[in-house]
Specification:
10 helices
Length: 307
C-alpha cells in the first residue's frame, strides 16, 4: 500500500495506469482496516472521520466489482454529481456499505432470465444540506410484507448458505453512526432501490480548517521501503521527511535539527544493545509527546530468550 501510494503521488503516472494503481492500493488498505477491526472487536471503536467524496467512493467501489458484472452481463449505469459530493465520514466504512448494496443488486439481477434486462443504476447528488447516494436495480425487488424486516439482523431473502442476513443491518448501523439514514423503496423499474442520505459538508471550508502546517519528521527504521512509504504519505503535503537506518544515526540527526515527529521501529537498537526508544527518552522527557512507535512483530518473550 505504501509503495503504490508513493508511485501515485509522484505525479508522473498517466491515466489509465494511475487508476490501476489506485485499485491495487485499495485492497491492502481494506485488509489492514479489517485486521484493525478484528483486533479492536472487544471494545468500541471510533471511525476515522475525514472529508470524503461520495462520488469517488462510487468510482472506486464499482471498479472492485466490475469484473463480476461483465461476466454476468450486467449493465452498470452511473450518474454522479458534477461537483465533489463531500461528507464527513470513514471512507472504508462507506465503501463497505456501498459494496454490500451493489453486491446485493448484482445477485438480484444476475439470476434473472436472459430475456429480462440486467441493469444496476448508481446515482449521487445533493438536496439542500444532504448528500444522496442511490443504488437501484432491475430485479424483482422485495415483497412488501418483508420490507419491515430488511434491516433486522440475520434476516435474509437469499437461499440457505447464500447470505448471513447481517449485511444490511451492519450497513444500516454504519450509516446511522455517520449521522445519516439508509432506506429502501421500490424503484420505478420495479426492482430494489436503496438510498443513503448523509449530511453534506463544505469541502473548501473543511480543507482550510484541517490543512496542517509544514512539519519536520524523522523516520527511524532499517527498512528503506518504510522510508519511502512515509515520505509518500507526508511529503505530498509539504512536510519534510528525514530517514535514519539505526539508533546512533537517529541521535546524530536529532542533535543537528529539531523534529516535530519521530516515527521509530520498536526493534531499533543502539550499538550497546539499548533499545533506541529508551536511549532517546533518556534525558529527553519532552520528546515522548512527539514519538510514535511502530512494530510489525511482537517483542520476544525475555523468559524464552533466557532459556
Amino acid at each position: 500500500a505504501g509503495l503504490t501510494e508513493l508511485v501515485i503521488h509522484c505525479g508522473r503516472v498517466p491515466e489509465p495506469p494511475l487508476e490501476h494503481l489506485r485499485v491495487i492500493h485499495d485492497p491492502p488498505e481494506r485488509a489492514g482496516r479489517i485486521v484493525r477491526n478484528l483486533l479492536t472487536f472487544a471494545r468500541k471503536g471510533t471511525p476515522e472521520k475525514a472529508v470524503v467524496d461520495l462520488s469517488d467512493v462510487v468510482s472506486r467501489t464499482t471498479l472492485l466489482i466490475s469484473y463480476e458484472m461483465r461476466i454476468r452481463n450486467i449493465d452498470l449505469h452511473t450518474e454522479l454529481a458534477p461537483e465533489p459530493l463531500t461528507v464527513m465520514g470513514d471512507r472504508y466504512e462507506l465503501q463497505q456499505v456501498l459494496l454490500n448494496l451493489v453486491t446485493n443488486a448484482v445477485q438480484a439481477v444476475g439470476s434473472l432470465d436472459e430475456s429480462r434486462p440486467r441493469a444496476i443504476w448508481i446515482e449521487t447528488g445533493r438536496a439542500d444540506g444532504t448528500a444522496i447516494l442511490r443504488v437501484r436495480d432491475s430485479g424483482d425487488g422485495v415483497q412488501p410484507d418483508l420490507v419491515p424486516y430488511l434491516f433486522t439482523p440475520f434476516f435474509t431473502t437469499k437461499e440457505p448458505g447464500q447470505g448471513t442476513g447481517l449485511g444490511l443491518s451492519l450497513s444500516y448501523g454504519l450509516i446511522e453512526s455517520h449521522g445519516g439514514r439508509l432506506s429502501y423503496a421500490t424503484s420505478p423499474s420495479g426492482g430494489a432501490e436503496f438510498t443513503i442520505a448523509l449530511p453534506w459538508v463544505d469541502d473548501t471550508r473543511e480543507a482550510g480548517r484541517d490543512r496542517p502546517a509544514t512539519r519536520i519528521i524523522l523516520v527511524v527504521d532499517p527498512d528503506p521501503a518504510m522510508h519511502r512509504a512515509v515520505s509518500a504519505l507526508f511529503a505530498g503535503d509539504g512536510h519534510v521527511v528525514d530517514a535514519a537506518r539505526g539508533g546512533a544515526e537517529a541521535l546524530t540527526a536529532l542533535e543537528a535539527r529539531p523534529y516535530d515527529l519521530i516515527i521509530a521501529d520498536t526493534h531499533v537498537m543502539m550499538p550497546d544493545g539499548t533499545p533506541f526508544p529508551d536511549a532517546l527518552l533518556a534525558g529527553r522527557p519532552a520528546v515522548q509527546s512527539r514519538l510514535a512507535l511502530i512494530t510489525a512483530t511482537a517483542r520476544p518473550d525475555p523468559r524464552k530468550a533466557k532459556g
